[in-house]
Amino acid sequence: MASEEELFASVDALLEEEPHLPSPAERARLREAAGITQARLATALKTTTQSVKNWENGRSEPKSPRLDAYQRLLNGWAAKYPAHGAASAAAPAPAASSEPAASEVETADAPQAPTVPAAGAARPATRPTAASRRPAAKKAAQPAADPRFPHGPLAVLDGDGSAYGVDGIVLDCPATTVVELVEWTLKESGLGAAKLNRYGKDSDPLIVLTAAAAVKLGLPERLEGHEQRRSLRLPEDHPVVKQVVKAKWQLTQRGFGPWARIYRTAQGRERQCVQLAVLSWDALDERSWPGVTDMEAADIARVLGVYATRVITPRGSTAVSGLELMTALRPPTKAVQDPATGNWVSGYNAGSLGTEPMDPAPPEATPEHPVVVDSGWSGGFLNEEAYQWVRSVDLLSDEECTLPFAVGLDLNTAFLAAAARLVVGLSAPDHFHTPTFNPKIPGSWLVDLSHIELDARLPSPFAPDGTRPTGPAWYQTHTVAYAQELGYDVQPIEAFLRRETGAYLDPWHDRLKTAYVDTLADLGVTRDLDDRAFLAAMEQHKQVDPAMAAVLAAIKATVKGGVGKLRERPQGKSYKEGERWPALQRPTWRPDIRAAVISKARVNMHRKLNNMAKMTGLYPLAVLSDCVVYPSPGDSPLAFLPYAASGKPQPGAFRLGPTPGLAKLEGVQSMLWAVDLMEKSLNPARHIKGGDAVLDEGE
Question: What percent of the chain has pLDDT over 70?
Fold first, then answer.
């Protein structure tokens, strides 16, 4: 017989076990009996609605301390709302009801998981099993999943071997090394995504590693040491790197860093490549993915999965993803038939940027670029940047000084709106002397706009600091065209123009616009709201669903980062002026396209400022990038925006709404703050929430 000591040890072990939750169906029944929605329960437990859905469908389990709180809540509900027939376990099952239980409603129509190798088998005794790992049935409007990638584009791997995918899928990953993980991903996981363009390539599967998963695979939890943190990659003699090389896999030139690509040379049309992202190595920047790193693995998978479905499978920072999306939607090549041999070969895809990098015109380049250094260029540069302007305090009227509020209006994804139907150059620049200005030709123009005199209470549309030009300078086509639109004569001295043109960014704009609008709608901000309802919804949208709010932030960062990366500057202390840096080898290193987007966005902003002044007599206090601050009698833009007698917003001025290019309330500050800002000539970037002085060039 067991001794008393052994019995007490066994009992103590039971007491130390984690709380045992009722079955998923019972959890849903108790919640509904209490009249609590999943969203309300998620708020109480400081988690997401999707997590609660996963708990009630058996796809995942909460972890302490949330587990203990959930157990306590369920025990309380169980005492209040006992199940019918609980007193008699042998009681016959009740007759079928005409209305299925909530848990049945969510899963009854769920498609069965496709048959896959070992990845499809759930581990017993570690996680509740279900007939299907797939989520509740998707909306009919969504396209059918690609049969080659039944488990979606990505998975988040936790330390216990659970790989959390999109829509609540949980796969078992037996890998204990990085090499095993790569092979499991390609052969068994069923992960990946179809190409976005008929001439493009399928997206490689993404595996996101939590800190526990990284350690299990032999990686350090953090990149420690000065050298590693500076270079953001493992040294070549690290055991994991050696394992990868020994197994005849390759790493890209960036090595094994926060975003590591492991590949073998493609066999025919089949790619062999896996993208890894290490969360504890800061793969997800907090500025672009707010709060995501601290989420549970299933919720991280949800955030990244929505982004992958609506934008692109992440391949690095949001800036990198923004640039990759351009290429994915406009592939540089397509299959063409060689008339001489009849064979199909790779040929140029019209409307793309091609496969070869292209040097810019000297005024479009940066001072350290070889075309500038080698030629000794001293003719000046384009200065097409976002606004950073504050009105002089001397230009404030007495009436403006008595207004109690300064209200900030931020344009939704202003640079994305500027990319719509934007014609850019596709060929190399040609040099012209004294050309006739043509607003339809993209390029850079040397022209004197100093004779143009505009209202000093508005920033000049010709310079990012809002000051009046003092002589000839280089401008992008949209800036010069706006001078002509204002009624002034323009006579270019020189120009670098491109003969082949096209709306290269159109598909990029359309996809990101749809993603932005759809994600806002998920947060309760829809196009059918009137202005008051829109402001109320925007005030609360980040609290509605933190996961979707993070997706929205990532989409915005993708826009700005993608545009900024078109002119990525050299990085690293070892760089020497005049050398070519890696970014110059990309066909997408196009500072002229970046300048076109920013020029159009700044012109759009000035046009609205000018129309506002004509309609209302109001002038801005400051403008920073896509954010403008107005003096106001009230704490809402409704107090000063122009409306027609019918109640509809006046066209041409600022309008509220969720669509890119329309405005939202950014912040309300005391009028004294604005006056103090102008008196001290402080940098508005420190004080105006929401604006960006420059477009981030990304990592």
Answer: 82
β-bridge pairing 250-251 and 206-209: unpaired
Q: Which of 578, 547, 694, 538 is nearest to 626 (CA)?
A: 694
Q: Span 71-97, mean pLDDT? A: 65
Q: Are 516 and 416 in contact (CB under 8 A)?
A: yes
Compute the C-alpha angle 595/655/555, nearest 5°: 50
Confidence of residue 46 (pLDDT cuts 50, 70, 90): confident
Going by pLDDT thresholds of 50, 70 and 90, the confidence category of residue 226 is low
Rounded to whole angstroms, how far apart are CA atoms 393 and 412? 28
The 3-state DSSP class for residue 27 equals: helix
Given its phi and psi angles, is residue 289 left (phi above 0), alpha (psi -120 to 50 degrees) or beta? beta
Helix (H, G, I), strand (E, B) or coil at 369: coil
Q: Read off the pLDDT of residues 371-386 as tens digits, 9 standing for 90 and up.
A: 999 999 999 999 999 9
Better-predicted residue by pLDDT, 102 or 583: 583
Residue type, 178: V
What digits encode the pLDDT tens for the residues 231-261?
A: 688 999 999 999 999 999 999 988 999 999 9
Nearest to 560 by CA among 662, 412, 670, 455: 412
Alpha carbons 209 and 192: distance in angstroms, whole number: 16
What's the sign of the alpha-carbon dihedral 93, 99, 103, 105?
A: positive
> pLDDT category, 15, cuts 50, 70, 90?
low
0.85 exceeded by pTM = no
| Full strand arrangement of the beta sheet holding 472-476 | 430-433, 494-497, 443-448, 472-476
Smallest CA-to-CA distance from 319 within 508, 557, 571 is with: 557
Instruction: Spell 401-418 as b/e; 16+ CB within 10 A means b.
Output: eebebbbbbbbbbbbbbb
φ/ψ bin of 163: left (φ > 0), alpha (ψ from -120 to 50), beta (otherwise)? beta
Beta carbons of 106 and 57 less than 8 angstroms apart: yes
CA–CA gap between residue 165 and residue 112 (Å, rounded)? 15
pLDDT tens digits, one per residue of 285-334: 999 999 999 999 999 999 999 999 999 999 999 999 999 999 999 999 99
Banded pLDDT at 467 (limits 50, 70, 90): very high
Helices (H) and strands (E) in the chain, counts: 21, 20
Residues 128 and 168: their CA atoms lie apart, in Å, by 13
What is the DSSP code (8-state) at residue 325?
Answer: H
Closest CA to 571 of 260, 319, 206: 319
Q: What are phi and psi of 219, to 5 degrees?
A: -95, 150
CA distances from 71 to 22, 67, 75 (A): 9, 6, 6
CA–CA dist 594, 580 (Å, integer): 19
For residue 689, the model assigns a pLDDT of 35
Mean predicted lDDT score pLDDT of the chain = 84
**Ramachandran angles phi, psi of 430, nearest 5°:** -115, 145
Closest CA to 420 of 290, 507, 338, 549: 507
Q: What is the DSSP string of 68-128?
A: HHHHHHHHHHHHHSPPTTTT-TTSPPPPPPSS--HHHHHHTTPPPPPP-SGGGPPPTTTS-
Cα radius of gyration (the chain): 29
Residue 130, sorted as left (phi over 0), alpha (psi -120 to 50) or beta, turns out to be: beta
